[in-house]
Amino acid sequence: MTQAFETLPYQEQLRRLNLLVESVLPRYGLRKVQVVLLQYEDNAVYHITIPK
């Protein structure tokens, strides 16, 4: 049985969010981008930089 996301330790939540971001961005044609987590409290906010 999978543990509910909100009950996971903070670091495990971050790890899973990062895996999600890495798997979703290519579906939008965003490859080889720089991803920086700006904030994670109520929401996760990322800054995505696309190379020129």
Task: Explain briefly what this protein structure is.
The protein has about 50 residues and is α+β, with helices and mostly antiparallel strands. Helix content is about 30%, strand content about 25%. It has one domain (about 5-50).
Describe this structure as you would to a colleague:
The chain is α+β, with helices and mostly antiparallel strands. It has one domain. It is 29% helix and 25% strand. It is built from one helix and two strands; from the N terminus they run αββ. The protein has a two-stranded antiparallel ribbon. Strand 1 and strand 2 form a beta hairpin. The protein is elongated and about 40 Å long. The model has no long low-confidence stretch (mean pLDDT 94).
Assign a percent range to the helix content: 25-40%
User: From the alpha-carbon coordinates, what is the Rg to the nearest angstrom?
Assistant: 13 Å
Strand order of the largest sheet: 1-2
Mean pLDDT: 94
Give the helix/strand layout.
Layout: H1 10-24, E1 34-40, E2 44-49
Antiparallel strand pairs: 1-2
List the main descriptive attributes of the protein structure presented here.
alpha+beta, two-stranded antiparallel ribbon, 29% helix
